[in-house]
Amino acid sequence: MTALDDPAAIRHFQSLCDACQDLTNRYHSPSELRIYADGYLHALRRSSTLDPRVLHRLEQLIDRWILDPSSFIGPDGDVSTLYMRRPEAF
Fold it and tell me: Can you give the pTM of this predicted structure?
């Protein structure tokens, strides 16, 4: 299997990707995204909603996706500023 085939796993992948992009837009670092994803995946493991093999494949895809900087765009649309600047204080 080279991709997710299970519709529920695909929905979880999309949900997790959307949440990570939102966190990136708020200048969270890749390590913080990893913590968030680990919590999400742990909740899926505990709920037993996905087959263990499908869940394992989802975990592998999320790991690769978070480590790939091309998965994200910066809050201003510029990849070079991704994770670098913090918003100005009010």
Answer: 0.77
